[in-house]
Amino acid sequence: MILESARLFWRSGYSGTSTRDLTAALGLSTSSLYAAFGSKAGLFEEAVRTYAERYREIYARAVTEGDVHAVVERVLIESVDEFSMPSNTHPGCLLSSAVMTDSTNTLDASAYFAELQNANERTLRERIDRAIRDGDLAADTDAATLSGLVQSIWHGLSLRARLGVPREELLATVRLTQDLIRRLTP
């Protein structure tokens, strides 16, 4: 049920998905939807939280890699795998596609999205800090800037996937990013 509602939000955003669309797709009455989730916003927030865990898990797995380059590669490639699923499954990233297209004043999910992105960036930055301390990256590498760059690339990959850019082109961006980051290796 959550995945089907997430697909609707992916396609049309929060504002563009009506309660009628949701009840028809889920086979629920309006009263059942409200009983289960409290509101359309409640269902949307649940879909965002469920989906967001996929990315939290990508970052958590990635930072266990022994090499910082493998960390970045894993974050970006596993995210591209998510972003480039067939559009009938989901186009791009729900968080970028649906949350960011609606007013941040409208949804608590926007605050959750910001928290998730900040948490993922902190996780990555801590791993980059460790790589600098361990000598895997040049001592003058700015961990905050590098983690911000990776997050910016991540968002760009999400947007480009949403626009229909083929997976191979997204992976070419990942490879270029890797090449640039390898230049920071002493």
Distance between the termini: 50 Å
Q: Let me know the number of strands.
A: 0
Strand content: under 5%
Q: How many alpha or pi helices?
A: 9
- Envelope shape: elongated
Gyration radius from CA atoms, angstroms:
18 Å
Coarse structural class: mainly alpha
Assembly state: single chain
Q: Return the string of H and E elements.
A: HHHHHHHHH
Largest sheet features: none
The whole-number mean of residue pLDDT values reads: 85
Low-confidence stretches: none
* Approximate helicity band: over 70%
Please provide a written account of the structure:
The chain is built from 9 helices and no strands. The chain has helices at residues 2-12, 19-26, 30-37, 40-62, 68-83, 94-99, 108-133, 143-162, 167-182. α4 (40-62) runs antiparallel to α5, α4 (40-62) packs parallel to α7 and α7 packs across α8 (143-162). The radius of gyration is 18 Å and the shape is elongated.
